[in-house]
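Can anyone check this?
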Amino acid sequence: MNMYLGKDGKCAIPSMTATHATVTGLAARIEHGYKLYMDNFFSTKVLFDDLYTKTIKCYGTVRPN
């Protein structure tokens, strides 16, 4: 089990942001019908689309920028 202790810039790779990598890493062990609720710090359209391809539904506020 992983616990998020704060923003970690080391986990970012060129194709995704640090927050995207953090959520993806924390959600690595869940798939198939799970639901994630998050605040607008983590939620982006790209992240939601990525998790949707893994059959994980996401709910939260997405900022327009």
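Reply from J.R.: I decoded it. The mean pLDDT is 78.
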